[in-house]
């Protein structure tokens, strides 16, 4: 069904057409109608499925229909996100969708000029896209008020939980008017988020698209066992021997990211780095250069695993296997965006096998192992895969152990 099925105002339909959208994604189809009716919505969907548009369109339609729009601009909608990169991405989507309307939006994030943000807020805006810490800074400094907020959005709620923002989120939500609409979107809904639902929301409409733990259908996964001392050389070989439009390389630490990007640059591969030690201007420049394809490779820590929305990412490389299975799904979700196809390549040394076991149990399937032909392995890699999903394999082992009278470990 086309976007015209939604009773949005003409200026929003015009913006949607200008952005090249024709048919809504499943999360948009299910979330936009109840959100437009003013209901609270708890939405769960895989990364890259269009959650941003699913909450921005109903929010804008509500603000534009409000008669108070004729008065001085005041903050009437708040969108909270976990990282600066994701905040910038959401703010860009808002600006694209309000291009034919008078709504104004301000980006409020750490690492950027507090004074400049204050000046923008003084000039007036209906929407604030913010990270929790910087939003609280402005509220405490009385450069911004939340007393008129009609719509509150919590985007990537599970990630904000993982990053320790829940105390700040509770403080912010307590400052908002009780009579408001709350929209919460997340890739997963862990128990602590479930416990916060009655605290933040009123009888929300629950929407789930796809199984939250499963990677996008268009992503091909492959795993290369390799010694830790040969990871750099194998990464270089994979990049040079693979047809890559552009690739993301994820590392576990900032120092590791810096080391990988230096390694790639010395071998003539256009690469840049993104992590929290960079200034906001450096992070913005890195993203812009990668988005404009000035660099073929972006090396990043997990801070970027949900903040990057670049359509042309053909490959994701897990240079370091993530410690948490959820982070694996979020990382590889940077390719195969909006139901396109992509490749997710993981390099695994012996110390990381336990992380892969947890990941395979989480996603419910084994990741195919492979070797790179003609690569000079110091130790031949062991290729072990299971015909049945890993979860089934563990159940079978338990049954065998019980039937033989031995204790399963």
Explain what this protein looks like in three dimensions.
The chain has 409 residues and is α/β, with parallel strands linked by helices. It folds into 2 domains: 3-209, P-loop containing nucleotide triphosphate hydrolases (Rossmann fold), CATH 3.40.50; 219-394, 3-Layer(aba) Sandwich (Rossmann fold). It contains 15 helices and 13 strands. The protein is globular and about 70 Å long. The relative contact order is 0.12. Mean pLDDT is 85; it is low at 386-409.
What are the secondary-structure elements, in order, as H or E? HHEHEHEHEHEHHEHEEHEHEHEEHEHH
What topology, given as strand order, has the largest sheet?
3-4-2-5-6-1-7
CATH topology of the largest domain: Rossmann fold
Q: Roughly what percent helix?
A: 25-40%
Reading off the top of the CATH hierarchy, the class of the largest domain is best stated as: Alpha Beta
Rg computed from alpha carbons, rounded to a whole number of angstroms: 23 Å
Query: How is the biggest beta sheet arranged?
Result: 7 strands, parallel
Structural class estimated from helices and strands = alpha/beta
Mean pLDDT: 85
Number of DSSP-assigned strands: 13
Assess the beta-strand content as a share of residues: 15-25%
Instruction: Give the full name of the CATH homologous superfamily of the largest domain.
Output: P-loop containing nucleotide triphosphate hydrolases
> Which term fits the overall shape?
globular
How many separate structural domains? 2
Q: Which architecture name of the largest domain does CATH use?
A: 3-Layer(aba) Sandwich
Low-confidence stretches: 386-409
Please report the distance between the alpha carbons of the first and last residues. 52 Å
Q: Tally the helices: what do you get?
A: 15
